[in-house]
Input
Amino acid sequence: MSVRGLAGILVFVAALLVPALGSRFYTFLANDVIIWALFATSLNLLVGYTGLVSFGHAAYFGVGAYVTGILMKKLAVPFLLAWPAAGVVGAACALVFGFFCVRLTRIYFAMLTLAFAQIVWAICFKWNELTGGEQGMPEIPYPDFGWLERFGASVPLLGGWRTAEYFYFLCVGLVGASLWALHRIVTSPFGRMLTTIRENAERAEFIGVNVRRYELAAFVLAGTFAGLAGGLFGIFNRGVFPDFAYWTKSSEVLIMTLLGGMGTFYGPSVGALVLILLNQQIVSYTEYWPLVLGTVLVVLLFGFPGGIAGAVGALSGRLFRRVRRA
Amino acid sequence: MPDASFVFAQSLSGLTAAMFLFLIASGLSLIFGVLRVLNFAHGTFYMLGAYLAYQAMLWLGPGPGRFWLAALGAALGIALLGGVVERVLFRHLYGKEELYQLLFTYALGLILSDAAKIFWGTQQKSVSRPPELSGSFSLFGATIPQYNLFIIVLGPSIALAFWFVLQHTRAGRFIRAAALDRETLGALGVNVDALYTWVFMLASFLGGLGGALISPMRATTPGMDTEVIVEAFVVVVIGGLGSLWGTFLGAVVYGQVLSFGILFFPRFSIFAVFALMAAVLIIRPWGFLGRPLR
Output
């Protein structure tokens, strides 16, 4: 097993241990982080790997949140079906929207993804009967963990957790599996082809690659995983609201991706971790979080275009050389 | 079917909203056309224009014509701010990837709008209408505030003045040339750096003026920048990025779709606007009157 694979497993195990610290707040933060990590990684498939700057990725996140939320709250569908449905509907939306988006390039691509996301937002905002409109849809139920509690009562370690903690374990498992799947995708020949398209779409076309079809496939995959992240987030947040799909959410996740570093697979997860922890720290001192965020972003864009992962990579590369030389 | 006077009033209110949007979007479109940067912070310039106008009204105290002085002062202040921002920060963005440009201008918007919150707090600020235009009159059975009529006249006047400057003055020729080929213009001995700063200041002036002039009609609040910037994006996309008359047309269409949308399909008027934006991008990405990018 590679070092990276081992590191991944270590992070996974560490994530599972968070509730054992005994603080509800830490578990809450960790849950927030892992869901956003999945959301940001799904965006990175587009922005980092394929070179398509989407400014409307929140659309699929929002759609996923509403699908799971509506199914579980209004139709009492079990989580086991309601969560995959978020991915399926997210994928379907991404297929329809992406079909048009991949025909455009650069700024026009970004504008069309924004337009579609705003359409989704407008529907969520106004369709009161289905989505609860402006007020959103509070009180999404947790998945049923009753069987686990009954079963876990006789097994050490499995029993005696709060519902929120069971949900956290579930999220760790599902996000872990999703990230593993995404990693398989980007390291597959298909993923390599996406990188080729990012580097030089024209040349990819010359060697016989149907660039649009590859881009659309990446778009649909990114939409699927964003939908899955949204499905988890609605339950975690105990409610689904229209601003899940508003354009500022799209920029938030884009910032996370960039902050962590688009050049690497784990970068966006690091970005999610840093941004959420930073937010939590700053908000306890001052209400001017956007000011801090904006400043961090400006420094990042001018000083560290590779994000945290890029900076760490460069630093460790330098250290490594020095160690070898000594 | 609503009666004719109501439809007339509705279309005039749409037109008023359109002229504000034109003021803002024309600056956005100008910056994109010449500097090739889509400026997310432009909405914040508009909001700051409104706050500055409010502040200037307080400073000036009661007196004749103080609203006009305040509005003009606010717009000039924003132009100055724009000049500084261009010189110090924007300069480094030209030719970079879109992602960097978008996020950088977004970050700038965050910083400036939070700075506004530090100065003016989160309470709504409102400005009273200039006394000269506080009345209203009726036309075809509809009651129209004088101020709205002033805005409806002002929009096309600014568009015409803008067009005249672009087409018939030396500075306008340089601006058009810079939009086409910056390097050649520089090689011909024009100071392109300074030209960019002037263009940015002009665009910021228009955004600030839009904000200052809307302050008597809508209360100034934090968050009005993120709302308006998306509206302005819709307008420039519909009309054509970088096209002056396209932006004008886009603003008029936007205003009418929104005000009649609210009339006939009250729940889906926002939807209609974004659907229109998406449709234009799909069918004719460069907009009604724009030209395809090279």
In short: The interface with chain A takes residues 38, 89, 92, 97-100, 102-104, 106-111, 113-115, 117-118, 226, 230, 233-234, 237, 241, 267-268, 270-271, 274-275, 277-278, 281-282, 285-286 of chain B (CB under 8 Å).
